[in-house]
Specification:
429 residues, mainly alpha, three-stranded antiparallel beta sheet, globular, binds acetyl coenzyme *A
Length: 429
């Protein structure tokens, strides 16, 4: 039975349909609100606005649940490869053996990067942030890989999605090598997605990279945990930009730019910088807890808080456990991990943090994992971007396949000057 809510204003009524999701989430469908009443809704930051219906990712911020296409992220982290997870998100189900083989072949065939792109990389100023470089280079891919005349639209889309997944990993490793002034290491067909990335990053002619199982596993889990998170800031950027029917490279490039911000993906870098500052400051994390609580101080506890999770981020739980296991198996003692754990212990009992539902998010422990693998701090958010790519692609594809998906064009409530006449320059004060 269809449900409605009734809106009453100045004696007139409008019935608005209620949309109910498969997990019981309820939304008021306001599609006809403006045409029937002249009203729009106002929701800065879109905290109460559902921008779409989606069958990709379910999260319950109160219970700390995250599922991709119905499968709990904990099970994927335990059992799946990153490649399978990417396929699951994009195609809606896990691949069978043949489909996975086919997908692997396509990823391998598309993993090289056009050699002319190297010149672009080399001309970025040395101090450029890798996220700025990645965003520009992904946009530039459209010029290097234009639409193929003889492909059907479906084949073209599949190829573009695969190209992005295959090349972004090579491009990220490439930027690291160029930043160090080292020769590039090419992808190898005998290595898995995660192994290949580590090999391209760390293999040198004078020191062959030995595949470290613990590092490969940590990277697999890290990327799976980042693979999608429904309508977050960067995903919404991809959907909004894509809604103008721009090419996929440009839409993904805008997602990378949004992810760069310290309130979003950039937090993993910001956490390590914050923990390092605390360590250099004598390890006095209590001072930073007080700073985070002080409303006159703009400082925020990086890696704490989330727009949707009002309990412990389920990804942070897995990340914390993996952090312990990784450091132990690699025999690494990281003082930042000790500071992080002690800080969490105290902060999560502090009334300010409790009242504001501030718990560690995924970024709180992920930087320590990346450090242990050997990833430089300024590449942390790039690692997040590689992980989030399947989610962005899946969300873009879902929006393109949605017959109701229109160009995104929010409204506003204007609060500026009302009309007044142009003043000639000699008469202006
Ligand atoms: N430290 C201190 N106080 C905080 C923090 C924090 N990390 N996060 C939120 N608060 C407080 C705010 O000051 C505000 O307090 P008030 O109501 O007393 O004024 C209240 O909690 C609500 O904060 P908002 O900014 O309105 O919450 P919002 O949902 O907009 O922000 C966000 C969520 C951006 C993640 C925020 O918690 C934050 O800045 N965290 C730190 C950065 C971070 O870790 N980002 C990663 C997010 S996860 C991800 O993108 C992968």
């Amino acid at each position: 039975m269809e449900e409605f809510v009734t809106l009453t204003y100045n004696g007139s009524e409008i019935k608005l349909p209620v949309v109910i999701g498969t997990e019981g989430e309820k939304a008021i469908d306001i599609t006809n609100l403006r045409s029937e009443t002249g009203f729009i809704t106002l929701d800065p930051g879109y905290a109460n606005t559902g921008s779409c219906t989606s069958a990709i990712t379910f999260m319950d911020g109160e219970k700390g649940i995250l599922r991709y296409r119905g499968i709990p992220v904990e099970q994927l982290a335990e059992n799946a490869t990153f490649k399978e997870t990417a396929y699951l998100l994009i195609h809606g189900r896990l691949p069978n053996r043949d489909e996975l083989t086919q997908f692997s072949i396509m990823l391998n065939d598309n993993s090289l990067v056009h050699t002319d792109m190297k010149a672009f990389y080399q001309n970025f100023p040395r101090a450029s942030h890798p996220m700025g470089i990645l965003s520009s280079m992904v946009n530039a891919m459209r010029s290097f890989y234009p639409i193929l005349e003889n492909e059907s639209e479906k084949e073209e889309i599949t190829l573009t999605m695969t190209r992005l997944l295959a090349k972004v990993r090579t491009m990220a490793a490439m930027s690291y090598k160029i930043s160090r002034g080292h020769e590039l290491v090419l992808p190898r067909p005998d290595l898995t997605y995660c192994e290949n990335f580590l090999n391209m990053m760390f293999e040198t002619p004078v020191k062959p990279y030995e595949i470290n199982r613990a590092a490969v596993n940590a990277l697999r889990v890290f990327w799976i945990l980042h693979a999608d998170h429904e309508q977050n800031c960067s995903t919404s950027a991809v959907r909004v930009v894509g809604s103008a029917r721009v090419n996929l490279y440009a839409a993904i490039s805008s997602g990378i730019s949004a992810l760069w911000g310290p309130l979003h993906g950039g937090a993993n870098q910001a956490v390590i910088e914050m923990l390092t500052e605390i360590q250099e400051d004598g390890g006095n994390f209590n001072k930073y807890i007080e700073k985070a609580k002080d409303k006159k101080d703009p400082f925020r506890m990086m890696g704490f808080g989330h727009r949707v999770y009002k309990t412990y981020d389920p990804r942070a739980k897995i990340m914390k456990k993996m952090c312990d296991e990784l450091l132990e198996s690699m025999n690494i003692k990281d003082p930042l991990l000790d500071i992080a754990k002690e800080l969490e212990e105290v902060a999560t009992k502090d009334p300010y943090f409790v009242d504001h539902n501030l718990y560690p998010n995924i970024d709180f422990y992920s930087g320590i994992v990346l450090r242990a693998i050997g990833i430089p701090t300024n590449m942390f958010t790039v690692m997040f971007a590689i992980g989030r790519l399947p989610g962005w692609i899946a969300q873009w594809k879902e929006s393109m396949d949605d017959p109701k998906w229109k160009i995104c064009r929010p409204r506003q409530v204007y609060t500026g000057n009302t009309a007044f006449d142009f003043v000639p320059i000699h008469a202006r004060r």
